[in-house]
Design brief:
The chain has four helices and two strands. It is mainly α. A two-stranded antiparallel sheet has the order 1-2. Strand 1 and strand 2 form a beta hairpin.
């Protein structure tokens, strides 16, 4: 026998059976689908994220090591450049900068005072 909540009798003695409420039927479908998608999304993210994070960390570590190595090589090359003490004094006094920075700029320009001063003024 049908559920009494879903049956209506109208004035002509016709029995109309109501369809189950749409919200209830749709709710089960939507919730089940949404829950299933959450689970599959979570599993996919876990698989991707653990591998991706370790790969990204390795790439960043390799990049930083290469940059540090390149900087070290650059510093060795700059240290080999011969500069005059008078040129360092001139740049230091004229530009009102530290001696270390004056030496650095002079070394970067291979001891050329004019080029070092031009860069510092620009």
């Amino acid at each position: 026998m049908a559920d009494d909540d879903n049956i209506e009798v109208d004035g002509d003695n016709h029995v109309n059976q109501e369809e189950p409420k749409g919200k209830r039927a749709a709710k089960h479908d939507d919730v089940g689908t949404a829950d299933l998608e959450k689970v599959t999304d979570y599993v996919e993210e876990e698989e991707i994220s653990s591998q991706s994070i370790s790969d990204a960390m390795k790439v960043m570590s390799d990049r930083k090591a290469k940059e540090a190595h390149d900087r070290q090589i650059r510093e060795k090359e700059l240290a080999k450049v011969k500069i005059n003490k008078e040129d360092v004094d001139l740049i230091e006094n004229e530009m009102e900068i530290s001696r270390v920075l004056a030496e650095r700029k002079l070394r970067e320009h291979k001891g050329n005072v004019v080029d070092a001063l031009v860069e510092l003024t620009n």
